[in-house]
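just leaving the lab so this will be short. below you get a single protein, a line of residues and a line of whole numbers that encode the local backbone shape. id like you to explain what the token line says about the fold, in plain words if possible. thanks a lot i owe you, the record is right below:

…
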Amino acid sequence: MLKKTIFVAALIVAMAGLRASILAAQFGPPRSEQTQQEREMEERRQKEANKKRQEEIREDTQKLYQLATELKDAVDKTNENLLSIDVVKKAEEVEKLAKKVKEKMKEGVGKPLIGEPPRLPRPPIGPT
């Protein structure tokens, strides 16, 4: 009976070790065992992702500016008796692109850079 108990305990310990090694093989080492090189690679990847996201925000903002200018020109050509379907479609495009830019601005990757000053909100423009 004692031999069976020892055998079962040894089997459980062996299975637990096997399970841990299988998990490590599938998912990599735990976060705490990450090497310095892996951390640097992850930081570089995050920086590149943020750089790409920032460039996309700039491009989309330029498109947004162009669409908003086109919308203003189209609205200036209308009067109180005439509202073009194109103006409504252009306004919808502006709204959709503005939401896209807003979402990209929220989705920063990684932790904030150390030493970067916090950004304060801008005061409102014009009378309140």
Observations:
- Residues 34-108 form one domain.
- The two ends are 85 Å apart (CA to CA).
